[in-house]
Amino acid sequence: MTISVRPNQSPASAYPGPETITRVVFDNGLIVLVRENHAAPLAVLDGYMPAGSIHDPADRAGLSAFTASMLTRGSADYDFDRFNETIESVGASLGMASDTHITSFGLTCLSEDFERLTGVLADALRRPTFPAEQMERLRAQKLVGLQEREQDTGRMANLRYHETIYGIHHPYGRAISGYPESVGAITREELADFHARRYTPNGAIIVVSGDVETTRVLALLERTFGDWRGPAPEQDVPPVQFPTETIRVDVPIPGKFQADIMLGAPAIPRRHPDFDAVRVANTVLGVFGLMGRLGEVVREEQGLAYYAYSVQEAESEAGVWTAIAGVNPVNVEQAVASILHEFERLGAEPVPDEELADSQAYLTGVLPLALETNAGVTSTLLNMEWHGLGLDYLQRYRSLIEAVTPADVQRVAQEYLGRDNKVIVVAGAA
Amino acid sequence: MNPQKFTLDNGLQVILQESHVAPVASFWIFYRVGSRNEPPGLTGTSHWVEHMLFKGTERFPRGEFDRAVARAGGIFNGMTGQDWTTYFETFPAERIELALQVESDRMVNAVFDPEEFESERFVIISEREGSENDPFWRLNEEVQAAAFHVHSYRHPVIGWKPDLLNLQREDLYSHYRTFYTPNNAVAVTVGDFDATEMLARIERYFGGLSAGPETPPVRAVEPQQAAERRILLRGDDPTAYLLMSFPAPAADHEDFFPLIVLDAVLGGAKGLGVMGGGSNNRSNRLYRALVDAGLTVDADTSFRPTVDPFVFTVGVTLAPHVEHEQVEDAIWRELVRIQEEGVTGAELAKAAQQTKAQFALSSESVTGRAYWLGFSEIVASTGWMEAWYETLAAVTPEDVQRVARRYFRRDGQTVGWYMANNEAHEEESDA
Question: For B301-341, how does the pLDDT look when each residue is reduced to its tens digit (9 = 90+)?
Fold first, then answer.
């Protein structure tokens, strides 16, 4: 292992960058980023393990998520009770959760407890014991959660939307938390096997920000994770077969007062050259101010919804661009028509210079707010590292956003929102 | 740096706290008005007024304000509670003046355009319907309404649906003119600025606004609950829930901090305010007695600082095939255990340590700090908040046992059960 520690010389106004972030790659492939911040006696650690729901067998959807939630329910040195007492007696939080490509883990605590609790984190990640009794208790909780999902208009719209747009046979299309049948079928051996095969320091990332000393953090992580060996991560997913025609799915749920709409189209992965153009276009469409053009038209002008906004979701290999609104069941068709009209308008007319400049100013201007807290810094750096954006990304960010032109916005709107391959899901209308 | 407090000649209270950790600043204005100030028939007025303050003034017509803040790289929102209505903007520090401009303008110049008012009626009904989708939200609404006979805390903040259909523009406008005065407001700024200079700026923007008459007092005092109250709510959702509610004292009462400790012992320490981070919560007494025992899948307690006495609640989601009675009995066993045996020194130490960590965490964000300062001034005082940790650390096991005996009473409880339509309930078998 080679370490080059950089002094923390940043004025408060500068963004974290190569001058203030220490980046080290351990011999086992673990990537570590540390940024000192002595403003408060706190430390935050955030990490990604390259194991996610893309690794779930088709009939075991939810396996990665189940594995992650079991890690804090028993490990070699910390059984359930000892783990809880250790973490909670000092008011810390330590948790894990699965996403598509990764399992995230995080620790937030007073800096005085950081070294000890990092040891607990390492024990949980490396040496889980998957106690059978805890497993059944957790399964029962998960099954109730899935039963509640069936009744939740927002969560059901989200579930059916992703199943439909990515296809149920693609890992991106299946629920990360799984389904009652798949979660009901998962065995203890499958959890232990998933952990053994997929949890690896190779390609994992740990980011630390807080009242810590860089050299001590590196020594600590070397001590707790340095002797861990694991295989190279497998992150490939099959190509996505997006819909070739527009599909409408209605999910009736009895007894509901509001319907949730998700309406969108296939878009682009995180590393696609159009990413920033779509990000800016999406800000115009459904983010800026009070939810952009969608908020203005659906909420402010027509009074149809409390929320109507849009999101860009970019996975490593594909992405979608989606409008979301919650409306009274009698207003569903009017809201859908309004959203489609805004999709079309974004592609048909160039966005006025001032409106574009507003969205760009917002996207660059809020960066100091996003980086105010240690947790804001760790999550930002973690995603920069995961997507390979470079340590100077925050310093380049403004120019990336400002380079987007009205013609770019119009082009990506036509390209991604202007085709007859949309998915419309309405959950809740009886 | 400690917060500094001032009062302008027109009665506006000002709280300033410098923080030079990050180049950001947050401005909050709190009005001493919320659903607590609403009589029957006018419920939801405060919240709807809050929405109307985003609908424009002459200077910032609808949409202009949101655009101006966002263009400056800011975030903003408004929130309405029982005791307060608040608006905030958080900016890169050099842009904070825009917040003063906007908030001083809309304290007096909001137009309440009649068409905008009508259109907003359906936005708010839509907001309510989104909440109604959640059976636990409906159960909570029913339990809270039953827990109070006379005090306005019985009303939901968003308002009852018939009121949302009936309210008129003039109802809102008169509410606005009555409660939106400098002498009924607290302005808070936390962040990267010079306090002397900031005070001068606040004086410049707000100093010229005229004080209003004193606001009408809330006179209703909830009589002591003499009988147990029970709610049975049914619906289409199959998952079962239970919510127990006990009358509890206001923020400035001597029993407040012992109850905060009791809350932590029973249901785990809570984050501070809206921006506070939560922590792991699986070693508290109810989690062990209910979740570890397989009776429920979660166990939450809630006790919040309020101006008038409100409630202490226990809310759970039942595991399948478990009866409400079983869970209720299990909760009572834990309450009685504390009443009879008290709590341990270790439990108290844990509550104190969790509080210490949460204060450190919540101090990270200027937005969270400004919220907590303003909110504290409304329900008690900033001094009450600054002494929070010390006061809490001084609570003894005897204090906790005493408040457990005083507030957990069977004839003072309001218990709500939610169950699916098709589920049998023994009391109905005679019908």
Answer: 999 999 999 999 999 999 999 999 999 999 999 999 999 99
Nearest residue on chain A to B277, alpha-carbon basis? A93
Domains of chain A and CATH, by start: 22-225 (3.30.830.10), 247-427 (3.30.830.10)
B-chain residue closest to A365, CA distance: B73
What is the C-alpha separation between A250 and A430, in angstroms, rounded?
9
Range of the domain at B305: 229-428
pTM for the whole structure: 0.95
Using one digit for the tens of pLDDT, what is the confidence trace for A269-283? 999 999 999 999 999
Contact A33, A233 (CB under 8 A): no
Strand partners, A310: A323
d(CA A276, CA B289): 51
Percent of chain A topping pLDDT 70: 97
A254/B320 Cβ within 8 A: no
Q: Indicate yes or no: CB of B133 within 8 angstroms of CB of A153.
A: yes
What is the rounded distance in angstroms from the CA atom of residue A62 to the CA atom of residue A52?
Answer: 9
B69 with B131, same domain? yes
- DSSP characters for A300-324? IIT--EEEEEEEEEE-SS-EEEEEE
Q: Which of B24, B69, B317 sits opposite A368 (nearest CB)?
A: B24
Residue B64 lies in a domain: yes
List Cβ neighbours of A198 (8 Å cut-off, separation of 6 or more).
A49, A50, A51, A55, A64
Nearest Cα to B200, choosing from B293, B58, B100? B100
Q: Are residues B322 and B175 part of one domain?
A: no
Same domain, B201 and B236: no
From A93, A38, A89, A109, select the one nearest B360 (Cα to Cα): A109
| A144/B291 touch (CB, cutoff 8 Å), yes or no | no
- Is residue B152 included in any domain, yes or no? yes
Supply B128's token pair: 């309510």
Cβ of residue B230 closer than 8 Å to a chain A Cβ: no
Instruction: Quickly state the pLDDT bin for A5 (edges 50, 70, 90).
Output: very low
pLDDT at B188 over 80: yes
Looking at the structure, tell me whether residues B156 and B241 fall in a common domain.
Answer: no
Bridging pattern class, strands B241-248 and B414-420: antiparallel
Q: Are residues B308 and B362 in the same domain?
A: yes
Is residue B259 included in any domain, yes or no?
A: yes
More confident call, B281 vs A319: A319
* Same domain membership, residue B258 and residue B162: no
Residue of chain A whose Cα is closest to the Cα of B237: A151
Tens digits of residue pLDDT in A85-117: 999 999 899 999 999 999 999 999 999 999 999
Other C-beta atoms within 10 Å of A226: how many? 17
Q: Are B299 and B405 contained in the same domain? A: yes
Among the ranges given (A141-145, B280-284, B379-383), the one the predictor scored with the smallest mean pLDDT: B280-284
Contact yes or no for B371/B78 (Cβ under 8 A):
no
